[in-house]
């Protein structure tokens, strides 16, 4: 981890620890906290309703007011920043183990910190979790590398970024969700 990442990581974890309980009490789940930008950083709070319903603008506004108040009181960041509250969206990032379970059967892209089976980037069908490993059936490059013909296991701790791929199947599942 470089020095810039180390400086951001601790405040981001502090923000997570501060906001997650309040969001939970409000009926939301914290999906991710992300700090981006240099001189004018943005603190992104990504959340979703715990009951699975679609996130609304009013939900984002309510979360924004609450998080702003919490951050004003706790002051966990070493500098001022712009607060951005958002929902994960349909082609959402996969962050938590439960995300990989919930979206098993859908296509995703995963990028790892270090090579796994000789690669750092994977595209394939998410198969869920096996302990601390993300299971995936790669769809690209499988013919070229015998190690990628079957399901692979990627340590969750090695995942840098993971995101669902917007497909007709994902859209159909989203539109047919009983909570939509």
Describe this structure in words.
Strands 7-6-5-4-8 form a 5-stranded antiparallel β-sheet. The chain has a 3-stranded mixed β-sheet with strand order 1-2-3, with helices on one face. Helices cover 31% and strands 33% of the residues. The chain has 2 domains: 3-86, GMP Synthetase, Chain A, domain 3; 97-175, Roll (SH3 type barrels). Helix 1 (3-26) crosses helix 2 (57-74). Mean pLDDT is 87; it is low at 1-8. By secondary structure, the chain is α+β, with helices and mostly antiparallel strands. Helix 2 (57-74) links the parallel strand 2 (42-49) and strand 3 (82-86).
Q: Can you tag this structure with a few keywords?
A:
180 residues, alpha+beta, GMP Synthetase, Chain A, domain 3, SH3 type barrels
Number of strands: 8
Rg, rounded, reads: 18 Å
Number of structurally distinct domains: 2
- Helix/strand-derived category reads alpha+beta
Order of helices and strands: HEEHEHEEEEEH
Spatial ordering of strands, largest sheet: 7-6-5-4-8
Q: What is the number of helices? A: 4
Query: CATH top level of the largest domain?
Result: Alpha Beta
Low-confidence stretches: 1-8
Main sheet, how many strands, which sense, barrel?
5 strands, antiparallel
Share of β-strand residues: 25-35%
Please state the oligomeric state of the protein chains shown: single chain
Question: What is the residue-averaged pLDDT?
Answer: 87
Q: What is the CATH H-level superfamily of the largest domain?
A: RimP-like superfamily, N-terminal
What shape does the CA trace take?
A: globular
Report how far apart the termini are: 40 Å
User: Which fold does the CATH topology of the largest domain refer to?
Assistant: GMP Synthetase, Chain A, domain 3
CATH architectural label of the largest domain:
2-Layer Sandwich
